[in-house]
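Curious: can you check?
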Amino acid sequence: MDMQEEIFLPVEQSGRERSIIEVLDEMMASLELPFSQKRAAQLKIKKGKHSGSVVPSEAERKMCGLSDVDIPATIRTCVERGSHMEKDGLQGQIMPEDLRMKRYRNKKHSTVLFVVDASRSQGANKRLAFAKSAVMAMLEKAYCDRDRVGLILFGDKHATVKLPFTKSVDVAAENMRELKAKGNTPLAMGLRLAEQVQLTDRRKYPEDIHLTVLITDGKSNYDAEHGNPVKLVYQAAEDLRKNELPLLVIDTENSIFGMGIGARIAELADGAYVKCAE
């Protein structure tokens, strides 16, 4: 993928114009484990590069095994305390407070699934052009960060995985360049397929951050399942929340007569919401 200077693709969030990449970066950061949880996770997940040592808490000392102990760092601490131990008659003995544990530098990998509305309504008012530009900008970021990306397209009564998760973004970029809008909008079908794809991948890569990016105008008017298409969309959004699958909604609907479906999807999914800037 040819790397170019970053494009400022504007979106509106809470009445403020921002770059789509800025929004994506902020959401990724918010999905990182809190520091205290990272420390606990390091006891269970021995992956990444050994990078220094940490002073364990009492609970961590009880949980750790010999392979968790940073022996050189522990001995150094013991030696540094030598004069005090000699005074107390404890020279040469390693005390619990001398213990140092290995610290692992675990790079958090991101898995981003783009779910793109390719229905006829997206072809109006340059919505499809915006959707293409948004995905291309985020693909460029994924290329730089070596993240995995996947692509689902929904439209014309179908939702299809056009690209399984991969680190090679060229195929995804080519799919977006060739994208044409047509047919009805099976929005709920796209969300249900996204849920299925993300849950399957999360079982294989539980340490990854799994983010779904939905780009749509929200005009759902078809579903293979029986029921109101909009209500089925809302149910699919709630299912994402129940399964703790983060969602970023990029709303391409900017009409004053819009129904606010994109914002409602984000609310029900407990996700983030932005809309294309006018």
User: Anything to note?
Assistant: Residues 1-7, 33-40 have pLDDT under 50 and may be disordered.
